[in-house]
Amino acid sequence: MKRKNIMKGLAAVAMTFAVTSCSSDYLDLQPISNESSESIPDNIYKMRTASYGTMQSMYRQYSLFYDLMFFNGEPWYQTYFGEGMGQDMTDYFMQRYVGSTFVNWQHMTSGGTWGAQIAWIYPYGIISQANYIIAGEKNLEEKGELEDEMAFRMAQAYTMRAHGYIRLHQMFGPRWEDSNNGQVHSVVIRTEAPDATKPVDKAVSSTNEVLDLIYSDLDRAIELYELSEFSRDYVWETDLSVAYGLYARAALLKNDWQNAEKYAHLASEGYEVMAPGEYITGFNTANGEWMWGSSDSPVGVYFCSYGASFGCNGAYSCLYKSGAGAIDYTLYKQVNNANDVRCQLYYTPDKEPRSIRAAFWNTDDISASTMDLNRGDRMPALLNAYCEKMYDLIGKNAGWIFPYTDSYFDNTLEIGSAYVPFGAQFKFWGKDNYSSSAVPFMRASEMLFIEAEAAYHNGNTSVAQDCLAKVNMNRITNYQKTTKTGEDLLAEIKLYRRFELWGEGFSWFDFKRWNEPIVRVGWKMNDSSSGNWPSATAKTFEVTDMNNWVWPISDTEIDYNDLVPASINNISPASEKAKNMYYKFK
Predict the structure, then answer these.
(1) 293 bridge partner residues
(2) What pLDDT, in 10s, does the model give residues 355-379?
(3) Cα(311)–Cα(339) distance, rounded to whole angstroms?
(4) Among candidates 253, 246, 289, 295, which has minimal Cα distance to 269?
(5) The dihedral of CA 564, 570, 574, 578: what is its sign?
(6) Mean per-residue pLDDT over the chain, rounded
(7) Dihedral angle at the C-alpha atoms of 64, 68, 71, 77, nearest 10 degrees?
(8) Which residue of 58, 376, 388, 456 is 20 to 30 Å from 6, comparing CA positions?
């Protein structure tokens, strides 16, 4: 008989976190013997606190995973899984400190890797907290108290549960084309408040069952948001627009183009796409385009801040000399346009005179193994000049620390011997010595790209063209609306979606649902047609690799749930060695 303690611990501590909103350790699972229904939120004070706790758990320190490059919830999840395993961001921080085994998908060979276990545990933590709130719905309805703010908070619980299952299905479920019309298994569905006195064994559910639950949760959330006249106070809270946005995301997972177009359109209503100047500075603190994002307060996050590791002036980006991520050069070249404000945010060969550009492919000026350009006789001065330009444009007036500097706490306006990668980004910044920064979870531009993609599939070509134009007219000087149709239009929508949302956590998930291979073009000496991926991570991943890009269910589930057999992961005997080879979860 498998042990049940870890699941009982999840039941207890998830509830405690939801009600108190003060623990950073709710995934530090400990066995318990019983649980009390008195903890189910039954008044507005408990409800508000539980709701805040659930949403704030998306961005905070997690002590159990602290050593895994400062796991902080949603920003980590979307960056490591969405970008680190994708095509569009090459990041030395991940490649050096996390390891090429993760970046090259070897964590997908076993449910015992920390990658598989974080991918499983984090969304279920959100789901468990939401379930505690939802468990009180019937009682509130019977007392006639499910109205106003109470209805709003209940709607938030349903929204968060849907988000948790979207994340799980993105990782552990099949792409729609591989699902046998929704019959292939996805993940375990849990909709009841965890209770240590009840069995935790549940079989995995089908893709259809999981997507049906997501749809029904969002239907209920929308109904409750509309019932309530209450509104949120913070951008890190969910609301009606976020529920619409999640509905659009979920619809993409089953090629449900009608609902994707409908809900993406509803989600973006009332939001304005950032103007060109706003886009340059728009990824540190929430603005009018942000539909959902984290707080930028250091409280509860500190050096686990997203900006510490991925801000161009972040503490670890600078002090560890690991950079802050770089754009895939093959993506950049497809867009490269001096009139596109987005292009300013990346240090690429076109930023220098033609006589200098060959240096990007010369080992006297760049490290072939790390893509560090800050070496040799020519590049350091050029890099420093570009950093000064971007600092004057973005960070100087705000008093932020200089980007890519090895004199971090002295705020010396020079890069010194810091690591600056080929394609270095200036999109994400930290704003203080903790590198505090808000992180966007959902923006209006994303919704416009969903609407455009869905409209294309629905045969609404003009709508697709208009949606693309609403974004690009705010990015490209003198932009003319595209006249492309058919596959050419779809390709343009995909290209600009990737470029617009770079670094925000979509790359791997998009390529999976598009059923397209990931091709990381490696760097080659004296070859300006090559890419900017070092050889250790310059890989091609076919659509059939790694069980069609389906992660193996975590051992934390298999070991403690009698109804989920190890054979479900379809892992070959040879790859079982991965359980002892690749960052075994502690």
Answers:
(1) 440
(2) 999 999 999 999 999 999 999 999 9
(3) 25
(4) 289
(5) negative
(6) 90
(7) -120
(8) 58
pLDDT at residue number 197: 77
Cα angle value 127/445/125 (rounded, 5°): 10
CA-wise closest residue to 383 among 359, 362, 410, 354: 359
Please report how the helices 240-252 and 207-227 are oriented relative to each other, as an axis angle in degrees rounded to 10: 160
Q: And the tokens for 333?
A: 């070249």
Q: What would the pLDDT profile of 501-527 be if each residue is shown by its tens digit?
A: 999 999 999 999 999 999 999 999 999
**Residues 159, 164, 166, CA angle at the centre, nearest 5°?**
95
CA–CA distance, 306 with 299 (Å, rounded to integer): 13
Structure tokens at 520: 């990381």
pTM score, two decimals?
0.92
How far apart are the C-alpha atoms of 153 and 47, rounded to whole Å?
7
Residues 50, 19 contacting (CB under 8 angstroms): yes
- The alpha carbon torsion through 42, 43, 46, 51 (nearest 10 deg) reads 80
Reported as half-sphere exposure (CB side, CA atoms, 13 A), residue 496 has a value of 29
Strand segments, DSSP code E, in 395-533 are 440-443, 518-519
Residue with tokens 């004296």: 526
Q: What distance in Å separates the CA atoms of residue 214 and residue 496, rounded to the nearest whole number?
A: 28
Residue 345 dihedral angles phi and psi, to the nearest 5°: -85, 10
Contact 439, 306 (CB under 8 A): yes
Burial letters 110-148, b for 16+ CB under 10 A, else e: bbbbbbbbbbbbbbbbbbbbbbbbbbbbeebeeeebbbe
In the chain, what are the helix, strand and coil shares in percent, each to the nearest 5?
50, 5, 45
